Amino acid sequence: MNKKHRMFVRMVLASLIRRRSRMIVALLAVVVGATILSGLGLIYYDVPRQMSAQFRSYGANVIFTPSGDSYITDDEIKKAVSVFPSDKLEGYTPYRYENSKLNNLPVTLAGTDFSSVLKTSPYWHISGELPDGNGKTLVGKKLAEKFGFSTGDSFSMLNSFQVTDDTDLSVIPDYEIYTDPQTGEKYCDHMLDLSLSGILETGGPEEEYIYVTLDDLSALMRSDRGCDLAEVSVAAREEELKGYLDDINNGSGNLTAKPVKRVTASESTVLSKLESLVLIVTAVVLALTMICVATTMMAVIAERRREIGLRKALGALDSSIILEFLSEGLVLGAVGGITGSLLGYLFANTVSMNVFSSAITFRPLLIPVAIIVSVAVTGLACLIPIRSAVDVDPALVLKGE
Amino acid sequence: MKLLELKNVTKRYGSLYALDKVSLGIEKGEWIAIMGPSGSGKSTMMNIISCMDKPTEGQVFFDGKDITKYSRRKLTEFHRDKIGLVFQQFHLINYLNAVENVMVAQYYHSMPDEKEALEALERVGLKDRAKHLPSQLSGGEQQRVCIARALINSPELILADEPTGNLDEANENIVLDLFRQLHKDGTSLIVVTHDPEVGEVAERVVRLEHGKIISDKKNSGFAE
């Protein structure tokens, strides 16, 4: 840097620092603009993630069903969910449904994995506890009322099946064979003793089921035939989700993956509207910042007309005047951009904590973006007043006219 | 050869003649006072000589070259190299200190040099005030900084417009002493003033009225 460059820097910095009471107004305009811009930018990018997490509380957004008349195995489910990125997969829960009898009344038994059920059905309200292993059950509220069950009660489920010469009874610990007096066919009653851990309240059809572990259900039914369906919760937008589901469905698996339309469609609609709103607000703020900075710079340059006239009288070319004033504007833009991007993070975080009750994800890329936008906006805003600065007639302004 | 020569210079604003066919020659090293009442055309002449304005008619020669034919850019370069300006209102940049104000003239002329700028301030007796902002200087001191800024690039001509108009008597004497010193060193000086005392110390007095030169006399009381 030669002496001329050093003098240039000295003049620009002196103007900004020693005239700080004036420049602070312009800086404030840039900082406010950059703060809101970077804050809204962070919110704009973080809203889908935050909202997806919120939407997950409404339950699974993907359902796996068998492609044909068969069932889906645990391995097939695991293979299918491996398509989703691990940071987007909230959880998955398999379900197997069977008819059974309780006190000689038909009931529906549902086998599931209790360790993951709340990840896909976080809205389940359980009085008591979630079963933590075999021999324990969760009973739907309506069914519990019908049978007068309460937490801690014990009962047995009955599965009657016909015994033939091929029936292997060795796998059944306790059984009793009896003969139908009318047909002469032999039957075996297999009992499953269960302890009631909790009562399930959802307001939906789940209140009429008895939930047990998949192992208990397999033992009662004497078969591990696989599942009827699996619910999956994925934190992804509708379009993104569609891509994953296409990958799964185009694979050679025995299952079909479908979105739960009422969840994914409403999620997509809400997110699109929210994003549009943030985008419009950002554009308006950007325009207002530009107007604010332009008018401030206009005022700053207007009060420096005499100085500009003097510089011209001392031999400054138009290009020198433009460079000096534009540099001041660009430094303001850069300082405002840096400050604004940091304040923007605090602003976005405060909004996120209040609205979504979770911290915003810091995106370092937004800092250079905010700085570049601030510098560009300030530069553009300075152009019109600088244009008028170049037209200053030194002979007039130095006479005080 | 004359340093500066105005030939039939006219400056018209609509139907108003600020200068009316004025012809004037200035020798190298000469000290001229241009005097006259308000509206006589003093400032217009000053602006034309300092290349900040162009005549409607006529020619201005500097070192034999017709500068009225110069483009705006060439005029800027020309007056930057040849002319130093001293103003009645000093026109210092308020956020730059005294030495920086002097260096601004160097910056647009060639290469800023703080040592040279300090020497210029020393010449006007203000070296110890170099780091002071204009707001921390008296009117007389500001005018001396203005003079230091005008002479820093060693111009062939110094143009001073009412240089003592805003000064008290003591500071007026300091400024006039500085002009004497500059004149002694061979610098040509044109001082626009309505103050008879300032006019008396010049080598030659040109009087203007209604845009015309009404008298052009050597000052009998001029002392080197």
Assign the CATH architecture of chain B.
3-Layer(aba) Sandwich
Low-pLDDT windows of residues of chain B: none
Structural class of chain B: alpha/beta
- Number of strand elements of chain B: 10
Sheet with most strands of chain B = 6 strands, mixed
Strand content of chain B: 25-35%
Counted up, domains of chain A total 2
SSE order of chain B: EEEHEEHEHHHEHEHEE
What's the level 1 CATH class of chain B?
Alpha Beta
- What would the CATH topology of chain B be? Rossmann fold
- What profile does the largest beta sheet of chain A have? 11 strands, mixed
Task: Report on the architecture of this protein.
The complex is a heterodimer of chains A (401) and B (224). By secondary structure, chain A is α+β, with helices and mostly antiparallel strands. Chain A folds into two domains: 3-54 and 268-398, no CATH class; 60-259, no CATH class. Chain A has twelve helices and eleven strands. Chain A has helices spanning 3-18, 20-55, 74-81, 114-120, 141-147, 214-221, 238-250, 261-302, 305-313, 318-355, 366-390, 394-397; strands at residues 62-66, 89-102, 105-112, 125-128, 136-140, 154-162, 175-179, 186-201, 209-213, 229-234, 255-259. In chain A, strands 1, 2, 3, 4, 5, 6, 7, 8, 9, 10 and 11 form an eleven-stranded mixed β-sheet that branches. In chain A, helix 2 packs antiparallel against helix 8 (261-302). With 224 residues, chain B is α/β, with parallel strands linked by helices. Chain B has one domain (27-51, 70-218): Rossmann fold, CATH 3.40.50.300. Chain B is 33% helix and 28% strand. Chain B contains seven helices and ten strands. In chain B, the strands form two sheets. Chain B has a six-stranded mixed β-sheet, sandwiched between helices. In chain B, helix 5 (139-151) runs parallel beside helix 6 (169-184). Chain B is globular, with a radius of gyration of 17 Å. The chains are: A alpha+beta (401), B alpha/beta (224). At the A-B interface, helix 1 and helix 9 of A face helix 2 and helix 3 of B.
